[in-house]
Amino acid sequence: MKNILEVQNLQTSFFTHVGEVKAVGGVSFQVGVGEAIGIVGESGCGKSVTSLSIMRLLTYPGQIVGGSINFAGKDLVKATEKEMQRIRGNEISMIFQDPMTSLNPVFTIGNQIMEPLMRHQKLSRSEAKAKAIEMLRLVGIPSPEKRAAQYPHEFSGGMRQRVMIAMALSCQPKLLIADEPTTALDVTIQAQILELMKELKEKINTSIILITHDLGVVAEVCSRIIVMYAGIIVEQGTREDIFYNPRHPYTWGLLKSIPHIEAEKKERLIPIDGQPPDLLKPPAGCPFYPRCEHAMEICVEQRPPYTDLSPVHKAACWLLHYNAPKVERGN
Amino acid sequence: MSRNKVLLQVNSLKKYFHISRGFFGGDKTVLKAVDDVSFHINRGETLGLVGESGCGKTTIGRTIIKLYEATAGSIVFDGQDITHLSQTEMLPYRKRMQMIFQDPYASLNSRMTVGDIIGEPIDIHNIAKGQERKEIIQELLNKVGLNSEHANRYPHEFSGGQRQRIGIARALAVQPEFIICDEPISALDVSIQAQVVNLLEDLQNDLGLTYLFIAHDLSMVKHISNRVGVMYLGKLAELTTSKELYKKPLHPYTKALLSAIPVPDPKTADSKQRIILEGDVPSPMNPLSGCRFRTRCPYAGNICSETVPELQEVESGHWVACHLVHKIN
Questions:
Q1: Which parts of B74-224 fold into alpha helices (H)?
Q2: What are B170-212's pLDDT values in tens digits?
Q3: Closest by Cβ to A42, choosing from B191, B222, B261
Q4: So what's the pLDDT on residue B263?
Q5: Cβ contact (<8 Å) for A186 and B216?
Q6: What's the burial of B273, exposed, middle or buried (CB within 10 Å: 0-12/13-18/19+)?
Q7: pLDDT tens-digit profile of A230-272?
């Protein structure tokens, strides 16, 4: 499969008055054409900063300090602001978490969808309007001609998220980044939106990066999963690798700490003790060692390298070193 | 003290909010947030309430603890009708029922030390002073998994999960019997949620607490509750044991809600038959005639728009409010 996006050793820091916060500390991954990948992790693990870095939307004091982002043969880290403006919304678009605040309240929905079409695709007003209505119909908004003339406050949360998706897909981008697209929505509405995203992926063949903290959501939509912790990727692999054969203790912990709705008997949840590290003073070794029950001496001192478990499955853990004691994933 | 088996009984509870619309606030509209809801909670039991935003689950919690005045119906706590008690008459009951709030960032006063936050209910109820008060606070902090030194710090120095522990310690300070947990974990990260849920379970075992657990996360509610009530637009749609609810949901809304949960397991996710509900929840301000779920219900018939379905016991301990319950199951 050809890759649409290749991120190499991306490092992003925030230079605050108390010191440098390494929000993303060397992240590498690829996204294939037409592929949907998921990035999971808890708040502060750097998943949103990774996506903002790809879009070059970081604001002061955030800054990309190293690495490269290769998108369709171009390094986005080196791209000028003008070049980025041509890419954003046209070749890469983004859906944000909160559909309530990411639409402009003083423009009609139709106008907001028409804007990228007129700007990037140089469509005329009437052409753009026709296309906007077509997009609204595609994302399942009833009577789109009437709805296009309405303002965001006249739409419910789920409907606004549909509008955001219509806007993001209007220029047929090669890559869609969805940052927690369903977190603010109710379960039944979330199911509608996820179904819509799966359907549109088939129809338009867009690559998707889905960022979420909900393991259920990635299992539904993504074929490959990246698990992030404290600014680094601790494990990545296919959906089946991550759910059925996880190899990093953090992934084990994540899977064990959620209740399973099918469970017949009530089992006690197994939380991960402690809290994520302070990224102002990150641990020298593995960032997960303070919370890891299998931590060894070397984990404190040295950052673990990636071990390739299959061509697509790799994890950063000293337990996978050939000299390490064999530890099984507990149940 | 009498030992009633039923600790809390809620009878046909209604809570309406009057909303002024239009110029000079003429044109009054009534928002029926909770409309004729009845249930009971046994001593030592956890009752879960689930539903989507705006279904009235938080309003029920707040009305029970009398942060809101009930519009109609009654709330009976340990054999005593507390619906119309005055503030002072309510004080001894406030000591017996406490609340844990959703947002650990907004529910702690940022200008008070943790010790004073936990000490406030102790002062209000005149439980202890001086050294004894200090000892109680330290004991509470240890009980919820924090250090006694934390008493002198301020809320901003703590993470979300730790703040929620402070909120729990504050609720425990008056040694209550009944705690209303209003979405206590939805603002927390996955790995931290499990910590707080386990803590709540341990405290229940150690102290014999009774919980009303309000949340929208069905898998977590199933995990922690003995019985679960499903709400839709101010009414109970279904009420039964958590096992039964997940194994054999009878109300079409419960079925849709259960099938909408994303499953963290690829095989199940691929094979699962999904019921996708059309449309959104209608506004509670102009409620529908008959069954409130009928606009989104795939089975709705004529009777559904004519009469409001009553909550009836279809099987032993399994209550459903649906006209067509026998036809569709």
A1: 87-96, 114-124, 130-143, 160-172, 190-207, 218-224
A2: 999 999 999 999 989 888 888 888 999 999 999 999 999 999 9
A3: B191
A4: 87
A5: yes
A6: exposed
A7: 999 999 999 999 999 999 999 999 998 888 877 777 788 888 8
Residue of A nearest to B187 (CA): A43
Residue A46 with chain B: CB contacts under 8 Å: none
Smallest CA–CA distance from A264 into chain B, residue: B243
Hey, are the CB atoms on A275 and B161 less than 8 Å from each other? yes
Model-level pTM greater than 0.95?
Answer: no
Does the CB of B161 have a partner CB in chain A at under 8 Å? yes
- Which residue type, as a one-letter code, is found at position A314? K
Task: Return the bridge partners of A25, or none.
Answer: A11
Is there a contact between A10 and A27 (Cβ–Cβ < 8 Å)?
yes
Cα distance between residue B257 and residue B242, in whole Å: 14
Select from A85, A96, A148, A95 the least CA-distant residue to A120: A85
Residue B1 banded pLDDT, cuts 50, 70, 90: very low
Given a contact cutoff of 8 angstroms between Cβ atoms, the answer to whether A269 and B188 are in contact is no
Q: Name all domains of chain B by residue range, CATH numbers in brackets.
A: 6-225 (3.40.50.300), 243-329 (no CATH)
DSSP β-bridge partners for residue B77: B8, B80
Looking at the complex, report in whole angstroms how far the Cα of residue B51 sits from the nearest Cα belonging to chain A. 9
